Each structure stands twice: as C-alpha cells, then as structure tokens.
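Morning!

This is the sequence you dropped in the shared folder:
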Amino acid sequence: MSYCINPACPQPQNQNNLIKCQACGSVLLLRDRYQIIKPLGKGGFGATFLAKDTSLPGAPICVIKELRPSTTTPNVLEMARKLFKREAETLGKIGHHPQVPRLLGYFEWKKHFYLVQEYVSGSTLKQEIKKQGQFDEEQAKQFLIEILPVIDYIHDQGVIHRDIKPANIIRRSQDGHLVLIDFGAVKDHVNQTHMADAGTGETAFTNISIGTSGFAPPEQMALRPVYASDIYALGVTCIFLLTGKSPNSLGYDQINGEMLWRPLVDISNWFEEVLQKMVEVSVRHRFQSAEELLTVLKKESEQKQLESNSNYTVKTVFRDEPTVFNENQADFSWMSPKTQMAQKIRERNTRLEKKSPDPIRPNSVKMREEVNKGYLTTVSPNKTIQLGTKAPEKWTASNLRSAYIKGRIDFADCDLSRLNLRNAKLSGANFYGVNLHQANLQGADLSDANLGHGNLTNSILKNANLTKAYLSTASLAECDLRDADLTNAYLNGADLRGANLCGANLTNAMISERQLEMAKTNWWTILPNGKRGSGF
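The structure's back. Tokens below.
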C-alpha cells in the first residue's frame, strides 16, 4: 500500500501501482523516489513516516521526517527552514555513533521540509513498559549504563538533545542495543530567538522545540538548557521505567517543586539518592555530566563485585576502640552531607550483617573466647579467612562464544585478554571498556560492535569485519588490522600508534589524518574518501 501524506486527505490509503492519491489527487511518490508506507507519529510541528527508497536496489526501508509549518508566511517558513537545516546538520555531525540513526538525506519540497533517516527496527521503551511491565532496580541501572555513553558522545559534539523520554529510545530488535532517536529538539551553537506562538500537543515549541512537558527541567522550559538538562530528562525517564507512570501523573511538591516519585519505587537507598540527584530542580545540585553519573554507577558496581570477591583477615580490637571495616567503600562525595552520613551508617550495618564472624557458631570457638576476654573481633581486609567469597567470572574463548550464541551481548569491562577468538561471530556485542590485549580476533565478525574505550593493544584483527563498529577512545596501539573492513567505523579519539592498517578498508570511517599518520598504511589501504594510498 502507498500512503498519502497530505494531512487533509480523507482517505490516505492507496494501492501500490497508483501515481496519485485517489482521494485528493496528491502525488504519492515523494520527490519521484520515496514511497510512503505508513505514518509512524505526528506532533504539532510535523510528522514521521515509514517509507521505501525506490531509487535503490531492493527498495530499502527508511524513515521520512516531515517538518510541516502551520502557515507558509515568510517569517514562519524561514524559522522552519532554520530548524530543518539545524537538525540535518546535527544528525550529519553525530550520526556516526552506532546508537544514533544515520542521516541519509534531506530536501525541501513544495514548502515542506524532509529528513531521510536510517530505519531502526524495534520497540520504544514506552512500548516495552506497556507490554512487559516496569523495570526493577538492576534493569534501571543497566539502562543508564548503556545509554549514558551515547549522551556523553552527543554532549562531546556540543549538542544537547532536549527531548529524552521513553518514546525517543528504541531497543533495536537486531541486537537489543538502545538507540536514541528524534533530534528535532536539539540545541547546539545556533542562537535562540523567541517565537510568538507555541506549538500544540504534547511538545511545545519556540523557534526550536523546548522538549516534552514533565520530562524537560525548569531551566529548559525557560529556554536556558544546559547539558545537565538531559540528565534531568534521563532521570525522569528512569522513574517512568520503574513506575510505569508518566511524570505529569505523579504530582509535585508545592513548596520546592520536586516530583513526588519516591513512595512508588522499590529500590535501594543508594539508587534512590542517585535518581534524586538526577532530577534535582536546581541545576547546581544535579549531576553535571553524563560522564560524572556514569562514574558513580560504575564505582558502585565495582564495589559490589569487590565486596563479593575480597578476602578478609580477623582483627582484634578493644571494645572502646572504633571498629575497623573494609576501606574499599563506595564514593559518597556526590551526596549531601546529611545523606552521606545516613548512607555510611546503612553501609556499615550491611557489612556487619554480611561479614562479621558469628561468635555463637561452634566453629568460631576462638572468636567466642576473644569476646569473653573483653575484646571485640571484627573484619578487616587483606587475607586468610574467606567468608562466603565468590570467585570472579572467568571467560574462556569457548564459554564466551557459547554465551553469545545463547543471546548474551553485554561483555562491557570484561577481561578477555589473550583469548583466541579467531573467526568468532560477535556482531552487535557491547565490549565497552573491555580488555582485549593480545587477543586473537582474526577474521572475527565485530560489525556494529561497541568497543569504545576498550584496550585492544597488540591484538590481532586481521581480516576482521569492523563495519560500523564504535571504537571511540579505544587503544589500538600496535594492533594488526591488515585487510580489516572498517567501513563506516567510528575511530575518533582512538590510539592508532603503530597499528597496521595495510590493506584495510576505511571508507567513510570517522578518523583524522593525524591518527592515520601514526598508523602503518600502504597503497592497498582504502582511505575514508574511498581512494587508495596516502592522503585524504
């Protein structure tokens, strides 16, 4: 079926073989190229459609976003043109990240403006919650850990998204990764001017969209967004995932303006404080960056693993001395002083319950004797007595391959050094922060994989498929990348000192000339511009 995009059309559905709409006479093939299949959504300023690009073999699916000004008066038309141009430029700038849709084209046609984007198959988080129910704490933490690097990336490009919400995050059906969509509300370095009339519907507009009610923080609604504004929207999104309720249905404290969400969630006190700092009304009390928040989450995760894997010795102290505990504690510096004290007390009580020897048990005779002598036996780090410790997860080449085949795709921060993963099929896997030092990945399929911030020094990636792979800030020093396919790979910030790129295909890869100068190339190396040899 072909769909007519005329908003006034009484019967937009048409047969495939028709050139014009039977109901209103509008041309059905947009720009003699794009066949609209069905609408995906609409708002006060435009609409989004699923389409086929009939000019390409196989007529691949794409998304057409139409910016539809409410009037065609010169000033409104010019404002819409600026908005359209800015979104196109932004998508062109940031669309090389594997979790951001690529811009495929843009054009103006009959006083309407159209963006053509990569189609991301999957369900939005809003749809996912409606179908499967709300997240628990661990799912919410994993959501943040996966989406924060994407937000950090767009902020590094000087872009504020300004409309982060569950409906704008898709879980890609291909690999289960989260994809951030709809950059129509972005703010970059374009100066803002006010528009007299606001848009209608859920999203309000000035000359640029200011976001969605309930998800946008106060400073953004006042047209003064900052990077921390996206952190607020992400926090509200997380609360939605935990409660299944939209922010406007939760209510607000009439005195301080804070959202009333805490009684509705069943999460730890620590994570509750994290969320509260994300959605602070005052910008200065909020997490200031995605990187800062991600650091806090990862420290807590590492601390849990440390506590479960650490060995302890018995230390004896007098009753009137302060009790000594494991010093490898989580960082609470981001909390308020009052909250820090409460959290430390909770952590202390938890450690006492989990790690202190039980003086009543028969196998603790010596400890019982120490208590009778007027001493208090406590636990301190460093060795000899293991109290229910758990060995860290060990990865071998075989169990990693098996885990991937069974559906696991998240191997972030894992130690996979020196593993033989030759010809492994690991497309779309998340290896963010992974240690692959001296690993053998010759001929491996790592297409669409996230290897950002990973350690791949001295690894073998000869003939590997790294198309669309994300390798930002990864260490590839002395890496063997001969004849590897790096088409559309993102290598900005990657360390390529001594890397062997002889015969590698870097067509459309995001890589600087300076990075290439540090690597080894030859006549058979295909450069980002599609040419062979040296020079861009």
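Headline: Residues 275 and 320 are 38 Å apart (CA to CA).

More detail when I'm at my desk.
O.
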